[in-house]
Amino acid sequence: MTSKIIANGILKAVGIITGVLLLLYFLYIIRSVIAYLAIAVVIALIGRPIVIFLRRKLKFPNILAVVLAMLIMVGILASIVALFIPLISEQGKNLSLLNIDELQDSINKLYDQITQYLGLSSEVVEDVIEDAKIEKNILEGLDLGFIPDFLNSFLDVLGTASIGLFSVLFISFFFLKDSKLFQNGLLTFVPKTKEGGTINSIDKINNLLSRYFLGLLLQIFILFVIYTIVLLIVGIENAIVIAFLCALFNVIPYIGPIIGGVIMIMLTMTSNLGSDFSTIILPKTGYVLIGLVIGQLVDNFFSQPLIFSNSVKSHPLEIFLVIIIAGLLFGVVGMIVAVPGYTAIKVILKEFLSDNKIVKSLTRNL
């Protein structure tokens, strides 16, 4: 091997590494556009069954079916926003006028009631607090003025997100209008000999993921109904908004239900600040906890098996391992995209490596 060949090999390697780094930097710069495209693909997959139903069953023209499907989805989004924005504005106004001393007294009173109910003597509690160097006054030294500022910033972010929303809706419209748009763009990077398999893979992925996302919406809706009924029976203010927020956390596998449950219990307790702990706060919290358990039992034994078996064609244990691994590698985002990503990979592997023994065992249900 001559020095010229070695030098050319080094230059080629440097060129490839430089090209990869430049590509990664470019993708980082346009990360917002990539996010818009990803969200638009999800919206298009959700809206696809609506468009197909309108075109095939009701004989609507393609453009009219797409417009109507977009209006339905925008209407649902607008309803959700209309549900939350007044609540956020009202809470921001309430917090800006909040009497901090009154809130401190209420929380400290709740703290005292809990310790008394658990049978802890004041001396024991004081010793624990002293050892842990914890202030008894929970809110002492805490400036709650950041809360209304945070809410105002959140509303500002919602305002600036209008550009992103318009971009997502615009891209989604054309993905729905021309179902082959994404496919044709992808085929430009695929060799001619692989185009047939790629088209089959895209069609199958579209069908599976459409069913998956619709099943996910059904899962959230079922939990929303259960949580709303429980909160209304218990008598919690803003029950519909709280129920929707906690049900929405179920999008995050395994961790999401825990976060949603903690939020619901905390909101139940704080909405009754100043009331007697043993006769009002504890029973209401107990009823909400029972409702959470019922919701999760329905979700774990009905909703999730239905979604995984009928949409992504994967065993629940298989999905569990994939979600855990994706969570360890990429965090919460990895857990959210684990199932659709794994489904797409399985379809592609079956199309192009169908003779492989491992691929056969993993994709036998597809």
List its traits.
single chain; 366 residues; mainly alpha
Order of helices and strands: HHHHHHHHHHHHHH
Strand content: under 5%
Structural class, judged by helices and strands? mainly alpha
Largest sheet: none
Radius of gyration: 26 Å
Separation of termini? Answer: 49 Å
Notes on the structure:
The chain has helices spanning 3-29, 31-56, 62-96, 100-117, 122-132, 146-160, 162-177, 181-187, 195-234, 239-248, 255-270, 277-312, 316-352, 357-362. With 366 residues, the chain is mainly α. Among the domains are: 99-143, no CATH class; 180-366, no CATH class. Helix 2 crosses helix 3.
How are the elements arranged and paired?
Layout (H helix, E strand, L loop, with lengths): L2 H27 L1 H26 L5 H35 L3 H18 L4 H11 L13 H15 L1 H16 L3 H7 L7 H40 L4 H10 L6 H16 L6 H36 L3 H37 L4 H6 L4
Q: What would you say about this model in short?
A:
With 366 residues, this protein is an all-alpha fold.
